[in-house]
Amino acid sequence: MNCAFIVLCILSLYVGTDPISWQGLFAGSEADWLTLKASRIPRLIAIVLTGMGLSIGGVILQHIVRNKFVEPETAGGLDAAKLGIMISLVVLPSAGVFSKMLAALALCFVAGVIYIMIVARIRYQQVVLIPVIGLMFGSVLSAGAEFYAYKNNLLQDVQGWLLGDFSRVVQGHYEILYVIVPVIVLTYVFAKRFTVIGMGQEMATSLGVSYKSTVALGLMLVSITVAATVISVGAIPFIGLVIPNLVALKYGEHLAKTLPLVAIGGACLLLICDLAGRLLIYPFEVPIGLTAGAVGGIVFLLLILRGLR
Question: What is the mean pLDDT of the chain?
Fold first, then answer.
């Protein structure tokens, strides 16, 4: 997987509407170096951090809810972040990116708590029922965000802005994604605790793990990742669902061992989706929200069918 990751990173730097000449780079061409430093490298970093963050956020939610089909998209997290950004745009139109991220983070965290409370009140929990409830919950939040945008004459601009797209990423407009780095580190530090809470509240308590505080920490880490992603590159669905499931099928669910694979796998999948979007209708570009949604949706359906057998 490491070799595949390196190859995909090199391809990501090379592919684009503005071609880069490797001979020009070695010769010190200012145009080639400017394209590489101002656009290609920032885009690569943004893709890698986003893929790692969303895949790790997905695996955290799956352990909290104890369902393999849950991730920020199927738990209402992405839609809650959209609603938070909508509110901040209207209430605080002059606010900076960090303030908008805080609004998205707060709404995402609250939505996560509400979703967990809803799931906990369901008496007969079926495997497919939990993500379906999350999708319904997310649809309600998304409708609220779109109504809010329509009421304040923001709908047309916001729909394009919130669709996952890395073509807007340039130097100086993606750096907030670096908050995902400490999220990854903290997830690895608390990996054993997240593994334990995946066994249930009673088991976690018997093993000396504070269930509520660990769940709160997990939700906060997921909320930070989702907020930073949505405010920087828009909503990208299903990345946090596909990779954790594929890794768990082969390597198990002990996060202390599988977390690096989940992170690299998420980055690889997002790189593949991004390259596909750049090449499908070259020289034009398909937003990654569409390619990731198509790939993730197909895999999601296959996993559901497999789970029902």
Answer: 83
Helices (H), ranges, the chain: 2-14, 22-27, 30-35, 41-65, 77-91, 97-120, 129-151, 155-162, 180-189, 191-197, 201-206, 211-233, 239-251, 255-279, 288-308
| Residue 175 near residue 41 (C-beta atoms within 8 A) | no
The burial of 155, by beta-carbon neighbours within 10 Å (0-12 exposed, 13-18 middle, 19 or more buried), is given as: middle
Q: What is the mean pLDDT of residues 279-301?
A: 82
Asked whether the whole model's pTM tops 0.85, one would answer yes
Separation between Cα atoms, residue 16 and residue 6, nearest integer Å:
18
Peptide bond just before 237 cis, omega within 30 deg: no
Lowest mean pLDDT among 124-128, 186-190, 257-261, 274-278: 124-128
Q: Which residue has the higher pLDDT, 155 or 217?
A: 217
CB under 8 Å to 188, separation ≥6 — which residues? 256, 259
**109 pLDDT exceeds 90?**
yes
How far apart, in whole angstroms, are the C-alpha atoms of residue 173 and residue 180?
A: 15
41 CB neighbour count, 10 Å cutoff: 14
Instruction: Report H helices in 171-236.
Output: 180-189, 191-197, 201-206, 211-233
> Residue 95: pLDDT above 80?
no
Domains of the chain: 47-308 (1.10.3470.10)
Can you tell me the distance from the alpha carbon of 45 to that of 50, in angstroms, rounded to the nearest whole number? 8
Place of tokens 């394209």: 35
- Could you tell me if residue 114 is left (phi over 0), alpha (psi between -120 and 50 degrees) or otherwise beta? alpha
The token pair that represents 12 in the structure block: 């990501």
Cα–Cα distance, 262 to 53 (Å, whole number): 10
